[in-house]
Specification:
Elements (H helix, E strand, L loop, with lengths): L3 E2 L4 E7 L2 H15 L4 E7 L4 H8 L8 E2 L9 H19 L3 E5 L3 H12 L4 E4 L14 H11 L2 E4 L2 H9 L7 E3 L3 H12 L11 E6 L8 H14 L4 E6 L4 H11 L5 E4 L4 H10 L2 E4 L3 H8 L4 E3 L7 H6 L2 E3 L4 H13 L1 H8 L10 H27 L10 E2 L1
Parallel strand pairs: 2-3, 2-5, 3-4, 5-6, 6-7, 7-8, 9-10, 9-12, 10-11, 12-13, 13-14
Antiparallel strand pairs: 1-15
Length: about 400
């Protein structure tokens, strides 16, 4: 890093709307709030309103502005339009120096668009993930590709993600391999302590999360019936924190209610979820973030999707992409539960997603580049009109 020192804090607007965004932007927001180089502004869109509110205080994030854009079962086009409009108003009112978005949600895409329309540079945390299939996962794959055309800073969690970006024409000087901030936050939470493990028996403990839009409907109902069959082994306890989505609840509740070895619980707070993840034996999920967290705790993960934008975990042997067919899902779970050697190989594969210092790299890079840009502008001004630095300028030590 260069020795540039910022004398006027950078106004950084962090836009988040979902629980995963809060988890992954929390360490960035905390680091910026603790630094004299930044003036962070946290804007929440409420895309996962109830799940988001239950964790903001826990993660030590204070929201500056909260939008109210969610409506029951609204179409993606309606949500997108409402978010661009609402975020555009906030960006115009606050005039940040940079807008920070994370991942691939509709909130992230519209945050980047709103910034672009107001000529504000965008920093993309967790950039470069790709499945290669534009509509799988839907709409996340296209969202992240579009953000990749807008962003000025591309903070890639792995070298593979960085290669995706440069292969698409993003200048290498704008791509930075940082690791994933989800690991930073997980280590922070575990260090804070607390949280309740929601497994209650001495049986084999399987943690399940399901919510993907492309899995909803008949696929998810079939997954629910598969989980019932798995629980029928008699030696398995399944805990499934149920997503707030009405479509998810309509698919899963009729299939899972009533089995003595299946515990369907309301969405867990982050401390409780982390403790439950740490206390499980096996993870079955269609989530993205859990594919990154599970290897840090030595928990094999079965990915209930046909594609993954996180192939590093699969290649490392910490996760297995099993698809969405009931028989394949059941067979993969039974094999892991019964084959101790296979289980140990996956549990000890290690984590390819980071060392817990992604946030340090992200914050330092943004600070360096703002310092360098401001220094260059000040030098140009000095050549044109010799004068001392005025209010709002930057200087180097």
């Amino acid at each position: 890093m260069s020795p540039n020192v910022i004398t006027t804090p950078v106004r950084a607007m962090l836009v988040l709307g979902t629980r995963p965004e809060a988890i992954k932007l929390a360490p960035v927001a905390r680091a910026m709030a603790a630094s004299p180089l930044f003036d962070p502004i946290v804007v929440t869109t409420g895309q996962h309103r109830e799940m988001l509110h239950q964790m903001l205080e826990l993660l030590q994030i204070e929201a500056h502005t909260e939008l109210d854009v969610m409506r029951d079962r609204q179409e993606l086009s309606t949500l997108t339009a409402r978010l661009v409009d609402g975020l555009g108003e906030v960006v115009r009112a606050e005039r940040p120096d940079v807008v920070v978005v994370q991942g691939d949600t509709t909130t992230a895409l519209t945050g980047a668009l709103a910034a672009f329309y107001e000529h504000i540079p965008v920093a993309h945390v967790e950039a470069g993930l790709r499945t290669g299939v534009a509509d799988n996962p839907f709409p996340e794959e296209l969202n992240r590709r579009l953000i990749g055309r807008i962003a000025r800073w591309h903070f890639a969690p792995t070298p593979r993600a960085a290669e995706h970006l440069t292969g698409e024409g993003v200048p290498a000087a704008e791509v930075f391999v940082t690791g994933n901030t989800v690991i930073d936050n997980l280590l922070w939470v575990l260090g804070e302590g607390g949280g309740r493990n929601h497994f209650e028996s001495g049986l084999r403990r399987v943690l399940v999360t399901l919510h993907r839009r492309e899995n909803q409907g008949d696929k998810m109902r079939a997954m629910g019936r598969t989980l019932w069959r798995l629980a029928d082994r008699g030696d398995v306890e399944i805990v499934l924190p149920l997503h707030k989505s009405p479509a998810v609840r309509e698919a899963l509740l009729p299939e899972l209610t009533g089995h003595p070895n299946i515990r369907v619980v309301e969405p867990l707070g982050y401390l409780d979820f982390s403790a439950t993840l740490a206390g499980c034996d096996l993870v079955m999920t269609d989530s993205g973030g859990i594919q990154e967290e599970a290897p840090s705790l030595g928990k094999p993960a079965l990915v209930l999707r046909t594609t993954t934008e996180r192939p590093e975990a699969v290649e490392a042997g910490a996760a297995k992409l099993v698809g969405t067919e009931p028989e394949a899902i059941l067979a993969a779970a039974v094999q892991l539960l019964d084959d101790r050697e296979l289980y140990e190989r996956m549990a000890t594969a290690g984590n390819p997603f980071g060392d817990g210092h992604a946030t340090d790299r992200i914050v330092a890079q943004i600070a360096e580049d703002f310092g360098a840009d401001a220094d260059a502008a000040a030098a140009d001004d000095a050549l044109a009109v010799p004068q001392s630095n005025g209010p709002g300028s930057y200087s180097t030590a």
